[in-house]
Amino acid sequence: MKKMMITAVVVCGAFLVNAAPAQAAPTDPVRALKTKLVAGLGVRIAETADWSDGTDTEQAYTNKGVLQFDTKGPAAYDISSTSWDEEKDRVIYLDKTTYLSGALVEKLSKGKTWFKYKGGGGMPYLYGQILNPAEPATLSALLKKGTTAGNKVTGKITFKDLAKVSPWFSRSEVRSWPGGTEVEYTMTLTSAGLVSKLWSSFTAKDVPNDYSEYENSTFIVDTRYTGWGSKVSVKAPNPKTVTDKQFS
């Protein structure tokens, strides 16, 4: 009788072990991102940009706004910025046109508060996130070049490699800087495989003459992403307030 009972327990135990559910495979971040790339949807961003000379580090800008998607990635954005000395700027990108207002543009015609020009697509500042994880090809490159540990991905990518995959970077202010410039980064992923935080840092070396004052400066940006797939709406400014006349 005892032998039969022991056998039954062993058999039942084996059955329970075999019946345990298999652990779910890790979520593919690129696949997770693509499910959110729907026209009219987007993601909210909030970031802090710091400047360092290697000894001192100072906060330079805070940026806050939204990216609006189409099926390929970010198609529009509306981002407001505040500098260390409380100057306010705002940038809207829509239909391949960039609109600038605030401290970025001065001496506009009377009644005009926005300057527009064709092109753009990446933040026009040095003090903005140059890595855009809402672009599938860029996210894929960051994942491949990084090392994943838990929910964090840490790595480095050069400006040259970024230019190959990222429209955001290719239209940014630093696109003409040396291709060998390295960007260090750490991405934090949610359980759904979406990026919740992205920290990046790069140092100016052998920069174009127009940027010589920034030589050896390090730019550090810490960005938070929330509301992936939420409804967003980026609209152009009132045409009556817009000019395309050059400013000085």
Explain how this protein is built.
The protein is an alpha+beta fold. Helices cover 18% and strands 39% of the residues. The chain contains 5 helices and 12 strands. It has helices at 2-19, 29-34, 136-145, 159-165, 167-170, and strands spanning 41-52, 57-69, 74-83, 88-94, 97-102, 114-118, 146-149, 152-158, 182-189, 195-203, 218-231, 242-243. The protein has a 12-stranded mixed β-sheet. The radius of gyration is 24 Å and the shape is globular.
List the helices and strands and how they pair.
Blueprint: H1 2-19, H2 29-34, E1 41-52, E2 57-69, E3 74-83, E4 88-94, E5 97-102, E6 114-118, H3 136-145, E7 146-149, E8 152-158, H4 159-165, H5 167-170, E9 182-189, E10 195-203, E11 218-231, E12 242-243
Parallel strand pairs: 6-12
Antiparallel strand pairs: 1-2, 1-11, 2-3, 3-4, 4-5, 5-6, 7-8, 8-9, 9-10, 10-11
Keywords:
18% helix, 248 residues, twelve-stranded mixed sheet, alpha+beta
Main sheet properties = 12 strands, mixed
Proportion of helical residues: 10-25%
Strand content: 35-45%
Mean pLDDT: 88
Number of strands: 12
Distance between the termini: 98 Å
Q: Stretches where pLDDT falls below 50 for ≥5 residues? A: 1-25
What order do the strands of the largest sheet run in, or round the barrel if closed?
Answer: 7-8-9-10-11-1-2-3-4-5-6-12
Number of helices: 5
Helix-and-strand structural type = alpha+beta
Cα-atom radius of gyration: 24 Å
What order do the helices and strands follow?
HHEEEEEEHEEHHEEEE
| Shape, principal axes of CA atoms | globular
